[in-house]
Design a protein that fits this description.
Layout: H1 9-30, H2 40-48, H3 55-69, H4 76-89, H5 92-98, H6 101-113
Length: 118
């Protein structure tokens, strides 16, 4: 797996957090109430769901979305299935081995936190 020209785990986290912030700020500016089932992490995810090309990037997006959800919302099963599908395309070991050590370590820590594959 070639890892050139891809977003890093930190960059994807930054993209998501920026969208998370923008959504929450927009809610405050417009004085809109939160609707049942509405989540800022869902908005952020939808902004980037088709933005990444590599299996590693798409895996990172799914993992980060689950971390940002922190157990809220009903989408955990969806994201876990997406992770399973991605790992079926390319082994987790291959993905992790192709990443720089610090990035691999952070992704592994989040996978462990979510009780996924580690």
């Amino acid at each position: 797996m070639k890892m050139d020209d891809r977003a890093t785990y930190g960059e994807i986290r930054g993209f998501l957090l920026n969208s998370y912030y923008v959504y929450c700020r927009t809610k405050l500016v417009s004085r809109q109430q939160w609707v049942s089932g509405e989540y800022e992490f869902g908005f952020a995810y939808e902004e980037f769901v088709n933005a990444f090309d590599t299996v590693a990037e798409r895996l990172m997006l799914e993992v980060l979305t689950l971390v940002l959800a922190a157990g809220r919302g009903g989408g955990a099963d969806f994201h876990r299935r997406k992770i399973d599908e991605l790992i079926a395309q390319e082994s987790l070991e291959a993905i992790l081995n192709a990443l720089p050590d610090d990035e691999s370590d952070e992704l592994q820590q989040d996978l462990k936190l979510l009780s996924l594959y580690i």
